[in-house]
C-alpha cells in the first residue's frame, strides 16, 4: 500500500548524489569536531560505543528507506507517522520535527559563528559581529533555498565534499602519527565496560541526528522509491566510517588528558601532526561543515511545514509555492523564528547560546524516530493485503529493534531534556485545535457557497 501526494512542485532536482550529500551533510556538522574531547574520558572503549550507535542508526536508516517506498509524500517522519497512526499523531510529529529544524538551525548558526571567530579574531572578540555572522548565514542560505532545491542541492554537494576533505585526511593519513601506547588502557571511565560503552554510545548518538534527511523532500527527489533508501544507507555508512576513523586517530595522536581538555580537539590533532597549517585547515573544515549542515536543515525547514500544510495539518499559507516552485513562506517563517532565538540567547555568549538552544532541539528530534520505527507495521496492517507469517515477523522485528533503540536514546538524553521536549510537544495541542477549527469553518463556508 503506497500513500501518494500530488503537489504543484517544481521539477524534481535531487538525485542520488544530492540526497546522499543531504544525509551526510546534515549528520556531519559541528559534532565530530567536538566529540573526540567528550569521548576521551572513556578511552578507546568508546569506539565500541560508536559501533553500537552506528548499528542502531543503520536499523533506522533501513526503516526510513522502507517507509519511503510505502509513502510517496513530502514531509519525511511527519508523512510516515500520519499514514501509520492518523492525523493527530502526524501533527505532533510534524510540530516536534519542525521545532527541531528551526531550533537546530539557530544552534548550528551559532556554532558557525564560533568557528568563523576562531579564524577571524575580530569577529570572535565581538558578540555583535558574531551575532551578525550567525544571522547572515541563516538568511544567505534561506535565500538560496528560496531560489530552488537544485541550487540548495548543489550547495549541499559542494560543502559535503569540502567538509570531508580534512576529516578524511585525519582519518586516513593520521594513522602514521598514532602512538600505540595511547590504546594501552581501554577503559578510562572508572565504570564497568558495559556502562562505559552505553554512556559513550549515548554521547555519539547526536552525531547521527539527521539520518532521515533524504526522506523529507520526497516530492523533489528523482525516483524517490530507489533514491531515498540508497542515499540514506550510503549516507549513514559513510558518516559512521568517518566518525570511527577520525575518533580512533584522535585518541592515538593525543594523550587522553590533553584530548579531554581541548576545546578544538581535531584542530589540536591536526596541529600536532602538521603544524599550524593543519590546525587552520581543520578550522576551515569546521566552518564548511556547519555551513553545509545549516544549508541542509534550512531546506528541511521549508519542506516539513509545506508537506503538513498540503494535508491541512499546518496553516495553508505555509503550503504556498513561490515563483521558483519552492515553499518560500515556510522557509522565511521558520528562519525568522530561528533568528529570533539566536538574538534572544546571544546575551549568554557563544557557548551559552549554543547550549541553551540545542536543548530545545534534542528531544523533539528523537520522538519521531520512535514513532517511525513501528510506522511500517501500522501502515501494512491497515492495508488490504495485511501481514502474516514471515513478512509479519520481519517487519515486526525490524520495527521492534528500531523502537527499542529510539527508546533507549530518549532515556539516555536525560530527565531535563525529556521534560523540556514533552512540554514543547504539548504546546502544539492548542495549535492543532485551532487549525482544526479553522479548517472546519472553511469547509462549512465552502459547502454553503
UniProtKB/TrEMBL annotation:
Its main location: membrane. The keyword Transmembrane applies. GO terms for molecular function: transmembrane transporter activity. The keyword Protease does not apply. InterPro entries: AA/rel_permease1, APC_superfamily. It is found in: Cell membrane. GO terms for cellular component: plasma membrane. Keywords: Cell membrane, Membrane, Transmembrane, Transmembrane helix. The chain crosses the membrane at residues 14-35, 47-67, 88-116, 128-146, 158-178, 194-211, 232-254, 274-294, 330-351, 357-379, 391-411, 417-435. It is a multi-pass membrane protein. Belongs to the amino acid-polyamine-organocation (APC) superfamily. Basic amino acid/polyamine antiporter (APA) (TC 2.A.3.2) family. Major component of the acid-resistance (AR) system allowing enteric pathogens to survive the acidic environment in the stomach. Exchanges extracellular arginine for its intracellular decarboxylation product agmatine (Agm) thereby expelling intracellular protons. Probably undergoes several conformational states in order to translocate the substrate across the membrane; keeps the substrate accessible to only 1 side of the membrane at a time by opening and closing 3 membrane-internal gates. This is Arginine/agmatine antiporter. It comes from Aquipseudomonas campi.
